[in-house]
Amino acid sequence: TEVTEKLEEVVMIWIKQIRQVLVESEQIRREADDIGPSAELEHWKTRMSSFNSLLEEIKSSRVKKIISILQAARSKTLKQWKDLDGRITIAANEAKDNVKYLYTLDKFFGPLAKASPVTLMEQVPSLMNTVCMIYCTSPYYNTSERMTSLLLKITNHMINTCKVYLCEG
Q1: How far apart, in whole angstroms, are the C-alpha atoms of residue 158 and residue 124?
Q2: Mind listing the pLDDT tens digit for each residue in 81-112?
Q3: What CATH number is given to the structural domain containing 33?
Q4: DSSP-assigned letter for residue 114
Q5: Which residues form the Dynein heavy chain tail domain (predicted)?
Q6: How far apart are the two ends of the chain, measured CA to CA in Å?
């Protein structure tokens, strides 16, 4: 029981740390008004990396041994642990999925930055088709909040491209 109590203390510390990571990941991001869509991809890539590292740690043999000892001892901390483990898995899957879908837009951003307004307008239909595909097929990115944020960033990108064109022309 003394070993079990020490292991439960360790797991409770992990639970507290993981909850903090989850809370921070769910907070609203503060972004500049003129930020482009590349920042959205970078955000999800960073988030994917963080959650994948966390998942690797949780699946490490050290953690698995501690959890199996607590399972044998029928510890009550395991309910919280399993809940968080599931939430981390969902967050990691969401980040991975969002990165996959946002990469489909990445091919537009380089050419859009250097385009003239006329070329820019020629790109808009295929860009919007890709955004529509993301909305229709992504299990995580198809919320009005995420789409609004993405479309705002795409618009900012297009406005900045036009500003550069006007200032150089």
Answers
A1: 10
A2: 999 999 999 999 999 999 999 999 988 888 77
A3: 1.20.58
A4: T
A5: 5-167
A6: 77
> 130 and 104 in contact (C-beta within 8 Å)?
yes
Query: To 10 degrees, what angle do helices 61-72 and 77-113 make?
Result: 150
122-136 pLDDT tens trace:
989 999 999 999 999
> What pTM was estimated for this model as a whole?
0.83
Residue 61, number of CB atoms within 10 A of its CB: 7
Q: Provide the number of structural domains found in the chain.
A: 1
Please provide the size of the chain in residues. 169
Q: Which domain holds residue 90?
A: 1-168
- Residue 131 neighbours by CB under 8 Å, 6+ apart: 105, 147, 150, 151, 154
pLDDT of residue 169 exceeding 70 = no
